[in-house]
Design brief:
By secondary structure, this protein is of the alpha/beta class. It has one domain: Aldolase class I (TIM Barrel, Alpha-Beta Barrel), CATH 3.20.20.70. The chain is about 45% helix and about 15% strand. The protein has twelve helices and eight strands. It has an eight-stranded parallel barrel with strand order 1-2-3-4-5-6-7-8, surrounded by six helices. The longest helix has 19 residues. It is globular, with a radius of gyration of 17 Å. The model has no long low-confidence stretch (mean pLDDT about 95). The structure holds 2-phosphoglycolic acid (PGA). The site of 2-phosphoglycolic acid has 13 residues, from strand 8.
Length: about 250
Amino acid sequence: MRKKIVAGNWKMNLDYNEGLALFSEISNMVKDELTGKQQAVICSPFIHLHALVQLGKGNDRISVGAQNAHQMEAGAYTGEVSAKMIKSVGAEYVILGHSERRQYFGESNELLAKKTDTALANGLKPIFCIGETLEERNSEVHFNVVKDQLADGLFHLDEEQFAKIVIAYEPVWAIGTGLTATSDQAQEIHAFIRKEIAARYGEEVAEDTTILYGGSCNAKNAPDLFAKTDIDGGLIGGASLKSRDFVDILKVFN
Ligand code: PGA
């Protein structure tokens, strides 16, 4: 059975104390209110990671992740944070290839392949983001875009490495816009992603891969999205900044 995951992406929000307060609230609610096997993941800015891991100790239902990691192991890269550093504070996950990083920081599939290798080599589980822009969807090349992102970013991995990857499909036009893909649109492309994985790694690996949907996902639309066979949870931006909203999304899996 593949894992059901709802991951919060705080992006560049919340100062240190605000982050700790929100995490504590979420952690308590998760403990009290979740009855299924779903996993909560909070992907915070680097500065929160260590404290959040400490706060989350003793609560198996909540994990902590970073939002980026550098492709190099270490060295003269002023201002950057390595996968080893992230792992050393006890974080478990790292978001790689978020569309904001692709767009604003020029991250290519080739660079993301390297980041993925370094993250895995240091024991982190990548939440690898893929998804098309509005232009690409309108010109009906979205299947090809997603296919290339998978092939160039991930399909160099061997089967054992690939088993540690969580995929997040996030249509860029749905991120922070209030526009959500319909559950049928999302299911269609999630099924395609799983088919691509099956072609590369076989049916069993494909069946076990967690594929999240992201892009204006909230407590209202999550039940419809998560009911689809190939949607295994969500990567949540805006709605992850409010404990009630975020935990309500998690509760869809109760
Ligand atoms: P959103 O962001 O939920 O605010 O649309 C999702 C994301 O960027 O991961």
